Amino acid sequence: MRRTVAALLAKDLALELRTRESVPAMVLFTVTTYVIFHFGLDRNSVDGDLAAGVLCVTLLFAAILGINRLFVAEHEQGGFDGFLLAPVDRTALFVAKAIGLFAFLCVVELVAVPAFAILLLGPSLTQALPGLVAVLLAANAGIAVVGTLVAALAIQTRARDLMVPLLALPLLVPVVLGASRATAPLFAAGGAGALAGNWMAMLALYDLLFALIAYAVFDFLLED
Amino acid sequence: MAFYAPTDADQGIIQKIFYVHVPMAIVALCGFIAGGIFAVMHLRTRDRRWDMRSYVTIHLSIVLAVGVLLTGSIWARASWGQWFVWDEPMLVVFLIVFLLYATYQPLRFSIEDPEKQSRYASVFAITAGAFVPLCFGAVRMAENLTHPQAGTMTTSGPSSVTITFLVSLVGMSLLFVTLCRYEMASKNATSKLRSLRRRLAGDDDFPLPAGRSAAPQL
Description:
- The complex is a heterodimer.
- By secondary structure, chain A is mainly alpha-helical.
- Chain A contains nine helices and no strands.
């Protein structure tokens, strides 16, 4: 199982490094969205819960772009058939894709968070950084798990690009809620407050529960 | 029946909508969870009848959920003065759950192959069915007490309120079960009729009936 996951993950990362399809688009999307928020809100800098909301919503919508592309190569190039022919555990595909999406989101945030600090964030980022990293890691895990499940569900439908946001956004509402409530005190105007522990616990519980559900049901999405 | 209970001193006659709104909400949520459980049974047994049960319960729960949102906003308008209150977690969660399940039918429609359609719909029903209790749990954390909880409202009031509430809850559940049975019977009859017609016509590629339906075919 571990070797299968490693092989699939290496394949996905090599594909992304060569085609540069998802991650650059997601990064560009986040920066553009900050500009949109600047004009939409008519604010030069944001702080507190507004800053947390802008960051979380931007990252969520950028993640939707990545989720849309997640299984496209498999679907179009017959990767599903090849994977099903191989005598390996099917859940390996889920684990590999979820880890891959998690890695993509982390790379996007490496650019998106500093860009946010430069373009929109009022208070200094350095104080908020340790707490923010913890929240974003938990949120990425939730998005990766739910996103992989939704991507696998939607890839076989006719209107794939439409189904992904329709399915993923309601399912990811708790992630946005938890992440933005947990980061809001970090971006407080008078200096970073403490990380909201109960919201972090909620995020962790969400990640765990959906990881278990997705692990249980993913097999059924792959048989033909 | 709702007129047996005393009229609320504070809210007057509008409080009677409580006996429709709350049982409807409880039955709709239980229907969503039941749909998820039937979907588990479908994936375990691969029996199309479980998929049919899952489809019918979710379908009727969506109808009830529309009713819940309508009666809820009428009640909110009358007692809080606004159609929708954002700082009220129960309302917001119910709206999210409704929006999630609203994609169930489009999902079924957009998969052509009937076997794959029922499998994917079951996976969706399980995920969404687990999402319902989780989401209500998450929202309980941001507890806000504007929304009257069913528990406090029935236990703190006179006993006639409790009785009326319980009777409406049982009534709503029975209505739900009856509607489910009717829809199931109608779906079965349609598919039987189709197979009889196909036998009469004597060829295998009998045209499917006009009009699109995402319902599972038995």
